[in-house]
Amino acid sequence: MRPAQAILGVGLRRLLQIENPLQIRYNIPMNTNADLAPKKDYYAPMHTAEHILNQTMVRVFGCNRSKTNHIEKNKSKCDYFLPSAPTEEQLREVEALVNDVIASRLPVTAEELPREVAEKSVDLSSLPEEAGETVRLVRVGGYDVCPCIGKHVSNTSEIGRFKLFSWDYQNGRLRIRFKLEQ
Ligand SMILES: [Zn+2]
Asked: What is the pTM of this model?
């Protein structure tokens, strides 16, 4: 089979498999395996760091995971809603905790489960109904688990060093900006 036909073959099969309107909404190209992810997840180390940051914010502040974020290769930002402004000391503690998790060399794994099984152990309330009957859960060792269709590193040791470089707090919203250093 010529390459063009091979690509077309995969594309058609993928097209036939699409039951999830989210995949169409994100305009996912159909010629590689990596593109089941939304565009913002294209850089796996940064996106995996986002998972760890979310879990750390939940543990430290009892807030929700970030729903508004912007993940890029060089720098990223995540928003969290808190009743009062955190101190610099608290945020440096968050940074240190994220780096502790990264340095623990945890495996990052994904599994697909029926929605009714997954929702017994994980909060799926942010997942739209049209996301389908099968849920992909991504685990960062025993530290974090959440539903995600993005692309991740296979071990936290691939992430690098997590650095908070700025933040601001306005009207209950904490915006954290971060980058990764080798
Ligand atoms: Zn993810």
From this structure: 0.76
